[in-house]
Amino acid sequence: MKSIRLFAPPQRPYSAAVERIERLPFRVRLAVSPSDIDQAVQLRATAYSRHIPTLGKALREPEPEDSRSDVLVLVAERKLDRQVVGTMRLQPNINGPLKLESDTRLPELYNGMRLLESTRLGVEGGESGKMVMVVLAKAAFEICHACGIDYAFAVGRRSMVEIFRTMCYDIVEGPLRLPYASVPLWVLSVPIPEVESRLAAKELRHFEFMARTAHPDIDIDYDRVFETFGSP
């Protein structure tokens, strides 16, 4: 028996036509069970321990945000053995400030805007982890677009800043010295309605990947997304 769709599926967030379909060795979906969260927690703790050991140690247990009703956790699940090889948490400002706002004050530009922060990004080590990271970023962007988010935010160390800059994020503030991190961190944001045009103007490789390539393995339950974040 087919499940009943509660919301109309979102339109593609790209004006460019699809030119190719790419299958991936993993599937990106929403975490739906305690096991999903446990695997995500283990992976993020391992990933953070590679660069910020003190924070990695603190992340060995689920955080309160992982079980909030207004938060979604993405997982990338390897098809071969169903192990989680990537994760990202999405937290909007629907019911309160972003997590990063407990550490810094955002410019007035963002007042009254629908914001979303991508937090606790973690992927397995090696080259395969880089692909997982980019696919998680694509899934997060498509969710933001579908929900009418104005700006997406991320916080990262210097090496992550370069990665986010290739995805057309702007530096909002940094470097910051925060009590939980042993390295400087930067706050970045990107206006969701401008992502496609920015990619098209700046970086052909990412534009082809994001806009002109369909990834059926990004398999998001948008009924749950709209129930959690609302629809535009």
Could you characterize the architecture of this molecule?
With 232 residues, this protein is of the alpha+beta class. The chain has helices at residues 34-49, 53-58, 127-146, 158-166, 195-202, 204-211, 222-229; strands at residues 20-21, 26-30, 72-78, 84-92, 115-123, 151-156, 170-176, 185-191, 213-214. It has a 7-stranded mixed beta sheet with strand order 2-3-4-5-6-8-7. A hairpin with an 8-residue loop joins strand 7 and strand 8 (185-191). Helix 5 packs across helix 6. The radius of gyration is 17 Å and the shape is globular.
The secondary-structure class comes to: alpha+beta
Number of domains: 1
Strand order of the largest sheet: 2-3-4-5-6-8-7
What is the N-to-C succession of helices and strands?
EEHHEEEHEHEEHHEH
Euclidean distance between termini CA atoms: 29 Å
Give the fraction of residues assigned to helices: 25-40%
Give start-end ranges of low-pLDDT stretches. Answer: none
Radius of gyration: 17 Å
Overall pLDDT = 91
Based on the coordinates given, report the CATH architecture.
3-Layer(aba) Sandwich
Q: In total, how many beta strands?
A: 9
CATH level 1 class label = Alpha Beta
- Report the biggest beta sheet as strand number plus sense, adding barrel if it closes: 7 strands, mixed
Q: If you consult CATH, what is the topology? A: Aminopeptidase
Shape verdict: globular
Give the CATH superfamily: Gcn5-related N-acetyltransferase (GNAT)
Strand content: 15-25%
Number of helical regions:
7
